[in-house]
């Protein structure tokens, strides 16, 4: 049997996660009073022919009873109760935006500002995040991507990827991505924009990639970049970072940056230590015929 405690920041996707786990065959209960959790676990474990997997939703609504969880988890660990903690998180700006879009009141805001409620909530839930077996930052995840991550953990039994990486190509003329953690400028590479037959094509096409990769300069750069990332990524995992955006930019964001971003993605996509996806922010822009340098 698998008993999963689903918790995290309000607005980070706990309700969605519970619905997804229910689709995967879990018996889900949301906001069960904490004093009843031990009884629920005991009854479930004694009925192996009934409920096979269960998920319990716990959040800030439990109030002062949250402090009881430490004792419960300690007892479960001593008695080898097979429980796991899934913590859903998101950046403060994302949470504020979600609350404003839904026009909901934060449970700890008490009629005040949403950001103050979020700060209080982070403090009260910090111990759960520290104890969590799985932390998923939903700031940049689409609903289908969250489902994929949950399926990897709870259905396919794949190694959990605590760090989720986004490889993002972009054009400097449209601005550096505000959420970028690492930014690399590849405007030193050969520019297909000045080749008539390549100008309106993208780095997703072989002819453009071949042009960008000519002379070996791009290969040399990629090898140095790979070496740096091989050093950085394990250290980000050890530090507990959940989300990493690696932004690769050229002038317009459709030729050189796309080519290099795709190469980085292909290099690291099969690694078990982290999840990874690729996005091309500006690939459909820059078709105005304006000069690009």
Short description:
The protein folds into 2 domains: 2-154, 3-Layer(aba) Sandwich (Rossmann fold), CATH 3.40.50.300; 163-280, no CATH class. Helices cover 39% and strands 19% of the residues.
Count of folded domains = 2
> Per CATH, what is the topology of the largest domain?
Rossmann fold
| Overall pLDDT level | 86
Number of helices: 9
Strand content: 15-25%
Q: Please give the alpha-carbon distance between the first and last residues.
A: 60 Å
Strand order of the largest sheet: 2-3-1-4-5
Helices and strands, with pairings:
Elements: E1 2-8, H1 14-23, E2 27-30, H2 37-45, E3 53-57, H3 69-78, E4 83-89, H4 92-102, H5 114-131, E5 134-137, H6 143-154, E6 163-171, E7 182-185, H7 206-212, H8 217-239, E8 243-250, H9 256-268, E9 274-280
Helix pairs in contact: 1-6
Which structural traits does this protein have?
alpha/beta, Rossmann fold
What would your notes on this structure say?
Residues 1-155 form the RapZ-like N-terminal domain. The chain is α/β, with parallel strands linked by helices and 293 residues long. Helices cover 39% and strands 19% of the residues. A five-stranded parallel β-sheet has the order 2-3-1-4-5, sandwiched between helices. Helix 1 packs across helix 6.
């Amino acid at each position: 049997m698998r008993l999963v405690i689903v918790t995290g920041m309000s607005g980070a996707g706990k309700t969605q996660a519970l619905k997804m786990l229910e689709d995967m065959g879990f018996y889900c209960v949301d906001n069960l009073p904490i004093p009843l959790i031990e009884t629920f676990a005991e009854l479930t474990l004694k009925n192996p022919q009934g409920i096979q997997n269960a998920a319990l939703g716990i959040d800030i609504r439990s109030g002062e009873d949250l402090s009881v969880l430490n004792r419960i988890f300690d007892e479960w660990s001593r008695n080898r109760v097979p429980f796991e903690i899934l913590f859903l998180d998101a950046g403060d700006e994302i949470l504020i935006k979600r609350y404003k879009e839904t026009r909901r009141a934060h449970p700890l805001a008490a009629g005040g500002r949403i950001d103050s409620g979020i700060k209080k909530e982070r403090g009260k839930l910090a111990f759960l995040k520290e104890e969590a077996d799985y932390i998923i930052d939903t700031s940049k995840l689409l609903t289908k991507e969250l489902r994929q991550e949950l399926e990897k953990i709870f259905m396919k039994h794949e190694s959990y990827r605590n760090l989720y990486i986004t490889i993002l190509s972009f054009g400097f003329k449209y601005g550096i991505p505000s959420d970028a953690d690492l930014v690399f400028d590849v405007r030193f590479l050969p520019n297909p924009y000045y080749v008539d037959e390549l100008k309106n094509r993208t780095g997703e096409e072989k002819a453009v990639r071949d042009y960008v990769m000519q002379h070996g300069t791009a290969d040399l750069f990629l090898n140095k970049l790979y070496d740096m990332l091989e050093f950085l990524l394990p250290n980000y995992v050890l530090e507990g970072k959940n989300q990493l955006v690696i932004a690769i930019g050229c002038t317009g964001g459709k030729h050189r940056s796309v080519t290099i971003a795709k190469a980085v993605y292909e290099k690291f996509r099969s690694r078990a230590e982290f999840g990874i996806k690729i996005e091309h922010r500006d690939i459909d822009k820059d078709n105005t015929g304006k000069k690009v340098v």
